[in-house]
Write a sequence for this structure.
């Protein structure tokens, strides 16, 4: 069994509920991402990952590619 | 209801705001579907997704590497998505119009609703702009709604794009919400449906373009989107709020603010001209015969004409002559008298006003967009 870790990120640039969904939708396609919940209201994403399959840089890169800025909480 | 303004809102704001992001969701769905149509490969695309154009048609190329699909292949799901979106939004518009009409039974309740809607929309806009203290006004769809939408982006059926379009009603952005508020106050189920339909149709050209160019193209200006849509939402909020103020007969309403600036000059001009009424050739719109005064106002699709001057102390009938009157113009309202009459599209409506006293009577359409005055000397 692999272990899982939770990543909390601040995300800037979201302008409506669809943005949060887009981030969750994209992250769900990344191998090693167990689940993610992004909130437009809180400008924040809570992402559960399997650290053996995905590293933080990949998560950040995937979100950056969508046009949003990230920072560690 | 001014559908041109709604269309422009859709074209300019709706197209670049939520729609651009929903385009991203649709792109993801199509990518997954087409990938599923290819032989199972253990490797998944690591980050992001390819764009619409970079995928092979589902099931058509089972062995080859993804071939660049033609524009036509991509427009089918985009069209299906937009059709689904149009359907759900039009239905909601009709529902909102019906609810609004029910509430509109009382002018007072309608005025309160419209004022509240205006204030809320302004708050949404300020939240969007990141004004401190307005953060809690950010609208976030309930988690259950988000799950429905995310699930529909993973469906494998041919109807999936249309289903996602239907589901997009669950994730409205600020601009969509303000248009929904307009639909609510539009005055009829039909006008509500038309408002939402025209808005969605307005969003489609940019949606198709941005959706096609996919996620990355939209990212460059996403930061500015928040600003642009925020400003637009505030403007729409002010517009809605002003409609409420007009209905309430508030001195702060735009028509009154403008009137106080122009009245002095126009009164001076009309005194000099020695007459009442806008042009000497126009038939008199307040006539007295046999001790009874009749005031005539024309209601067209552009509003009411003209503002009239009447005499006090004479029993008076107001005749509103509809000439292809449409939308909220048909909800003729005199707020001070708590009176509202639904006018026919064409034909006369008679309202007994009794003997008038000196002063002004403001009249306004059901949404507070079009106004006029009866001035009694």
């Amino acid at each position: 069994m692999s272990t899982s870790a939770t990543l909390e990120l601040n995300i800037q640039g979201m302008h409506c509920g669809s943005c949060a969904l887009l981030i969750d939708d994209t992250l769900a396609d990344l191998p090693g991402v167990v689940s993610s919940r992004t909130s437009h209201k809180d400008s924040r994403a809570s992402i559960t990952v399997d650290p053996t399959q995905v590293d933080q840089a990949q998560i950040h890169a995937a979100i950056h590619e969508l046009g949003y800025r990230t920072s560690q909480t | 209801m001014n559908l041109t303004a709604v269309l422009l809102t859709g074209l300019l704001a709706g197209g670049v705001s939520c729609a651009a992001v929903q385009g991203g969701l649709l792109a993801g769905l199509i990518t997954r579907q087409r990938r599923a149509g290819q032989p199972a490969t253990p490797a998944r695309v690591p980050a992001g997704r390819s764009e619409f154009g970079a995928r092979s048609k589902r099931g058509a190329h089972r062995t080859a590497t993804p071939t660049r699909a033609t524009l036509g292949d991509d427009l089918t799901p985009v069209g299906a998505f937009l059709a689904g979106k149009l359907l759900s939004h039009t239905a909601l518009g009709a529902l909102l119009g019906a609810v609004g009409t029910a509430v509109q039974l009382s002018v007072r309740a309608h005025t309160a609703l419209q004022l509240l809607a205006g204030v809320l929309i302004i708050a949404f806009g300020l939240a969007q702009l990141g004004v401190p203290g307005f953060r809690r006004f950010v609208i976030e769809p309930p988690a259950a709604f988000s799950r429905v939408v995310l699930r529909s982006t993973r469906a494998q059926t041919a109807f999936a794009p249309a289903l996602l379009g239907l589901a997009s009603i669950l994730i409205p952005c600020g601009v969509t919400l303000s248009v929904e508020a307009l639909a609510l106050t539009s005055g009829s189920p039909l006008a509500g449906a038309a408002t939402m339909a025209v808005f969605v149709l307005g969003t489609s050209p940019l949606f198709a373009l941005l959706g096609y160019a996919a996620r990355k193209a939209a990212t460059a200006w996403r930061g500015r989107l928040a600003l642009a849509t925020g400003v637009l939402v505030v403007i729409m909020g002010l517009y809605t709020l002003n409609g409420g103020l007009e209905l309430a007969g508030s001195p702060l309403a735009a028509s009154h603010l403008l009137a106080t600036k122009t009245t002095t000059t126009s009164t001076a001009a009309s005194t000099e001209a020695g007459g009442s009424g806008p042009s000497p050739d126009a038939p008199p719109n307040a006539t007295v015969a046999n001790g009874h005064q009749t005031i005539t106002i024309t209601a067209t699709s552009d509003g009411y004409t003209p503002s009239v001057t009447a005499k006090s102390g004479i029993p008076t009938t107001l005749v509103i002559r509809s000439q292809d009157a449409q939308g909220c113009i048909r909800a003729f309202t005199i707020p001070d008298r708590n009176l509202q009459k639904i006018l026919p599209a064409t034909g006369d409506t008679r309202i007994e006003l009794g003997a008038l006293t000196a002063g002004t009577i403001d009249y306004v359409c059901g949404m507070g967009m079009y106004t006029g005055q009866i001035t009694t000397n």
About this structure: Chain B touches chain A through 42 residues (CB under 8 Å).
